[in-house]
Amino acid sequence: DLHFETTAIHAGQAPDPATGAVITPLYQTSTYAQEQVGVTRGFDYSRTANPTRRSLEECLAALEGAGSYGLTFASGMAAIDTLLRLVKPGEYVVVSNDVYGGTFRLFDKVLAGYGLAFTFVDASIPAQVEHALRPETTLVWLETPTNPLLKIADIAEIARRVKSSRPGIWLAVDNTFASPYLQQPLALGADFSVYSTTKYIAGHSDVVGGAIVTRDAGAYERLKFLQNAIGAVPGPMDAWLTLRGIKTLALRMERHSSNALHIAEFLQNHPAVERVIYPGLDSHPGHAIAQRQMKMFGGMISIILKGGESAARRMTAATRLFTLAESLGGVESLIEVPAVMTHASVTGSALEIPGGLVRLSVGIEHVDDLLQDLEQALNE
Fold first, then answer.
1. Residue 1 designated active-site
2. C-beta of residue 47 within 8 angstroms of C-beta of residue 233
3. Catalytically annotated residue among 100, 181, 200, 278
4. Sign of the torsion formed by the C-alpha atoms of 315, 317, 320 and 322
5. Which three-class secondary structure state does DSSP give residue 70?
6. 22, 104, 267, 294: least buried by Cβ within 10 Å?
7. Is 199 a catalytic residue?
8. pTM listed for this prediction
9. pLDDT digit string (tens) for 19-40?
């Protein structure tokens, strides 16, 4: 019954019963003493479970609402790979046709070689998702907003269509761009919320991690088995840093979103910019849906420059506060050219990204400083 901000600080984080420590301790251990053979205090080996990691998993679950279960992983890709182990060879997955390049690489270049089949559709049109379903489909995979074209999928409508078509199909949403503060897919009908916790959840560009949250008890038990069997788990320091970052998630997302909206409005009037893609603008085709299913519109902006890839390279070389780097969601502002950086793996495919597209991860610096930096870089 607590508000999000309170839950983020307290869920799974009661004072340490042994010492009274207010902050969850860092249990930097690989193994645990057993009272007798097979008699433990709830922990036997840190690949299976670790108290610091468990606190993080309980907190993430609580942020998605009552009845949720959380699992954390060594990276967002490890979380995705583990979830896809629920799909058997010969079964189909329907996928948004604008997904993170690493997700496409895993699906198309790795898992397809093990008998999984993937169909890519424009998930901003729910009918395309529905029409792509076939008897062998077991999973629908969405990103919303997508990376990097920021397309918006109507989670509730797609969930309705998918479950009406066949109740056994799972719906997973990569919610990395929104974070659980801005959008909660489980409340909209999804079965899984998936995160690269590296990004907004941890929020400080100092840790890599991933997570899956679900309300399906059976799926949770299977995923927990896979988490232990595969072993792609975060270390206790990774879990501790992520848990620390979560405490300020609400505050950061407010500033990320506020800054991004100001910057998007500025960029759409700049003569060097052909198009601004941001769900918070009325001009965005998914604006009404985003307004309905998101609390705010997030900190990610994509722009297409009139000068193509050469202009994109010049702009990204000229910024002073926006750092040229991959990743996103940290307190600092980042800039990149997805076609040759994060999404190089989709080059030559139907998912290829325009060379003149620049992606901005808007940080929490003062917005006037960020505007000035972008203006001088565009003028350059």
1. no
2. yes
3. 100
4. positive
5. strand
6. 22
7. yes
8. 0.96
9. 999 999 999 999 999 999 989 9
